């Protein structure tokens, strides 16, 4: 579990990132979760945007993605979700 201080630090790092995944009409599926898991291993911190045509609630989407990818939910801001997972091979972010 991340502390408040760690989440603040990760939010500051995520600020300049662009979303690399989009959740649309199909919602969250296994393929998306696999891709997010791989992206987290490579980058540790990613943004996912939720499109207007997504039928699921943003909180549900965030929970499914964080559980499925075994990642920490850093923030939900508007229709954007920030996820963090410590990389096993490409560790670049050191938490305070």
Automatic annotation (TrEMBL):
Transmembrane segments: none
Keywords (A to Z) from UniProt: RNA-binding
Cross-referenced Pfam families: CRS1_YhbY
PROSITE patterns listed in its UniProt record: CRM
Domain of life: Bacteria
Residue intervals of the CRM domain: 1-96
The keyword RNA-binding is assigned to this record: yes
NCBIfam families per UniProt: RNA_bind_YhbY (TIGR00253)
Protein name: RNA-binding protein
UniProt organism field: Caldalkalibacillus horti
């Amino acid at each position: 579990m991340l502390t408040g201080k760690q989440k603040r630090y990760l939010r500051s790092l995520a600020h300049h990132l662009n979303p690399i995944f989009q959740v649309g009409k199909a919602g969250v599926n296994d393929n998306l979760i696999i891709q997010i898991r791989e992206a987290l291993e490579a980058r540790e911190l990613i943004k996912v945007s939720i499109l207007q045509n997504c039928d699921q609630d943003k909180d549900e989407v965030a929970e499914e993605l964080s559980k499925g990818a075994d990642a920490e939910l850093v923030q939900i801001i508007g229709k954007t979700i920030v996820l963090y997972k410590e990389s096993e091979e490409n560790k670049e972010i050191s938490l305070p």
